[in-house]
Amino acid sequence: MKIIILSIHIFFLFNIFLNSKEIIIADISDNKIDIDVGFKGAKLLFFGVIDNQGDIVVSVTGPRKAVKVRKKEKKMGLWINSDLKVFYDVPTYYYVASTKPLNELNADQALLVNQVGIKNIRFEGAEEKEEKERDFWKSGIINTMIKSKRYFSEEGYINISDKRLFKTELNFSAELTDGEYLVNTLLIKNGNVIAARRSFINVSKSGYGEKIYKMAMENSFLYGLMSVLFAMIFGFTVHETIRRVNA
């Protein structure tokens, strides 16, 4: 069934391509991801057509938010927070795929301008710091994001067939935040971007997870009260179970 749907999509895109001045067309198997209680990640098929030979790079960027970073130092045998910086416009998610490794594209300037590759992501904040020290803080954010599986340090692979059709899988871990995700597609040739395409994926909570989230946001007092109540009931139940087992 998936093969049939993919074939229909490709046929549709190819017809548009033949009657269009665009030199790159792309689409996603699904532009919506629902996060429920048992969400363990998702994989979406990304495919399209190009009119000119070159290398294709696809980057997925999650909603940008402010991030607080604390620097710890050891003083008198204790680790304490010695400094705090706030960075803005930090992507909550980042993934990139390409037809070949980014360092083999010979397009460093184009990748830098378009923020392709983890090292090229730009953050705002801590401008008063020297570049070397600011990069240290930025590296801390990136390493944390990689450990929490929000950033992928390894690049995905894009397959091209017949020199025109391309496809890849966009990987999403379970650590997603809701919001709009940008999917930028670049066609690079001789170190320059000769075509670009932007798509969107909407990520939203669903089911019980959505209801709990809305309650926490809209009525924090009631949410806190219910949390305490459930904790008390759970604690009492565990205590009674252990007491009866040991009786």
Descriptive report:
This protein is of the alpha+beta class and 247 residues long. The chain has two domains: 2-205, Immunoglobulin-like (Sandwich); 206-247. 32% of the residues lie in helices and 38% in strands. It contains five helices and twelve strands. The strands form three sheets. Strands 2-12-11-4-7-8 form a six-stranded mixed beta sheet. A four-stranded antiparallel beta sheet has the order 1-3-10-9. A hairpin with a 3-residue loop joins strand 9 (159-161) and strand 10 (165-172). Helix 4 (207-218) packs across helix 5. The longest helix is centred in the C-terminal third of the chain and has 27 residues, at 220-246. It starts with a helix and ends with a helix.
Strand count, sense and barrel status of the largest sheet are: 6 strands, mixed
CATH class of the largest domain: Mainly Beta
User: Looking at CATH, which topology of the largest domain would you report?
Assistant: Immunoglobulin-like
Radius of gyration based on Cα positions: 23 Å
In total, the number of strands is: 12
Main features:
single chain, 247 residues, alpha+beta, Immunoglobulin-like, 2 domains, 6-stranded mixed β-sheet, 4-stranded antiparallel β-sheet, 5 helices, 12 strands, 32% helix, disordered N terminus
